[in-house]
Amino acid sequence: MEKEITNKCESIMEEMGLSALDDKRKQEIMDKMVGLVCDRIILKLMGRISDVEVDEANEIMTSEDEDRQLEFLRIKMPDFNEILDEEINAVKAEILKDL
Amino acid sequence: MENKNESEIWEKDEALSKESKKTESPETFETNDDDLEKAKEIGNEEKQETIGKEVSEVRTETKEFDQFIEDVDRFNESFEISKTEKPKIFDRFKGLLSKKETADQRDYEKLSQDISKRVFEYGKVNPDILNNDSIKEFLEKAKEIANERADRVDKKIEGLNKQTAEEIEKVNKERPGLFDKISERFNKNGLEIVIALGLLAMLAAMPREALLDKIASGDVGMQINTLLSQLNLPQIHSFLPAKYANLALIASTAAVLRVAKSDFLTRNIKKYFGSNDLKEEVIQEEEKEPKETEDFDVSSREEVVEKKDTGESFNQVAGSAEHQETFKKYQEGELDSKGNEKVDDNDMNESFNQVAGSTEYQEAFKKYQEGELNSKENEKIDDNDMNESFNQVAGSAEYQEAFKKYQGGELDDEEKKEAGDDINESFNQVAGSAEYQEAFKKYQEGKLDNEEMKINKEELEMLNTLKEMIAKGEKVEVKYKKGLDWEFGWYVTDIKEKKGKRPSVSLKRFQGNDAKYINVDLSKIELAKKKY
């Protein structure tokens, strides 16, 4: 399955001029990009948590109540998709800049 | 036409090369050499060192280009030896690279990757090419180049990761542990997957038809194809491992309902990526579903479907401000609907049915028919030609028939079992049914009992180009989409256009002394010389 996924990622790698890479290496790069985008989104989220909400956020995230956790994330990031797009574009642009 | 077109392209390349030659300078080396001499003369050691380094780098680069040009020569010879059609692209690259002073390292890398891609494409038609020693050698070289480039991508990512880590450290000092907790939540609830999907979708732009073909040939099945076409990120399915297929279904259902994707995803992802208990809970909820589904008054919807423009109406209504208002009412439990007593926030099928069956929805629908819907929203939806195939199918009499059968429990049983695990069961039951598949097939073949099949902008452009080329008496070579692969060497002999049908194209291909003829839908071909 991994091979299939990486095969299908061909167009991304092509955009980066990496189409001749082997599948394993492509997957590694994809994984790294995902991790980076993920961290950047969480940082954005952190920026939206005010000082007075920190204790509540800690409590919610430590609890086992997944509904509350997801609700918290949803309220803090109603524009999740936009942020996702922004961060992906930013990472992509920074990688391709002067590559 | 081989060659009118190609010579035109080459002329353009030539012109571009000349242009860049003017700006980028063959004089670079001379100037650097002169500067180096001058620097030596005046004893400026620092400048001497810098310029010397630059000259040496440029010379190394030039050497690589020379080597590359030699390689391209050899590849072209190889193609001649193997008596296959010589890929003109090699000549084009050769032409560009010959002007080595205008090329830079990035061009070189990019071109090597492009060529390797083309080699693989030709390899599909003529597998012998891949056994050719020169080609093997070239592909190895292209791989090396890609690895070097990948190392630089890695370094870039590392650099960005370092910056991000510094920021994380900063927030950790201010709010210890919170970042990690949220991060863990992201991973556990599948948001990381969502991010991966977004990343893939954003980066993997591909032509609509290629995309639909790709999705249609996926593991999960064609039914998702049409659902995903509702989503602005339709590519996601093609990158998904089967175990995440439900995510695609969730996302696409959300899009069908025009619910904010983020809201929907965050509320539902946990069911699929969370604990087993939660999954069981979902299944139990689904088992309750048929009762609610029965409340969906399909007959009233069917009645209006007959009157409407099936290609657009649902989306027009669903995307309208009126529909959004209706949906809000539904969420707040204020919907004037006979089925609204059993509202379950997590059951998206139900919500659709509740909304679609309501008088508010009917009102919005009526407005759509009378052209009174919120025009801003309408424009937005008109632009999204990805909706077309789904709408054509979903609006058809065949689909309605399948949906009716679903309600009556008469759908194909085997397909029913497969769809049993999905949250949006009722749609999947319909979409996965033999009836729906038939409708979809008819859609693909342009035989759907429906209004005129529209063609998208890209297809229209291609159609016009084909007509122009044929009118000029040019030989029009196209590639034909056969399964997952493109077959080259097909020539257009005729274009058939009938009112109410999608245009089809007659193709001819030589096979030894014989020729093979086929008629295909426009979506199955692309110009062979289209840019890659």
Describe the structure.
- The complex is a heterodimer of chains A (99) and B (532).
- With 99 residues, chain A is an all-alpha fold.
- Chain A is built from six helices and no strands.
- Chain A has helices at 2-8, 10-15, 23-47, 54-62, 66-76, 80-96.
- In chain A, α1 (2-8) crosses α3.
- The longest helix of chain A has 25 residues, at 23-47.
- Chain A starts with a helix and ends with a helix.
- Residues 1-11 of chain A have low confidence and may be disordered.
- Chain B is of the alpha+beta class.
- Chain B has 26 helices and five strands.
- Chain B has helices at residues 4-24, 28-42, 45-81, 88-98, 105-125, 133-174, 178-188, 191-203, 208-216, 222-228, 236-239, 245-257, 261-273, 276-294, 298-307, 313-319, 321-331, 348-357, 359-369, 375-383, 387-394, 397-407, 413-419, 425-432, 434-444, 457-471; strands at 477-482, 485-496, 504-511, 514-521, 525-527.
- In chain B, strands 4-3-2-1-5 form a five-stranded antiparallel β-sheet.
- In chain B, a hairpin with a 2-residue loop joins β3 (504-511) and β4 (514-521).
- In chain B, α3 packs antiparallel against α4 and α13 (261-273) packs across α14.
- The longest helix of chain B has 42 residues, at 133-174.
- The chains are: A mainly alpha (99), B alpha+beta (532).
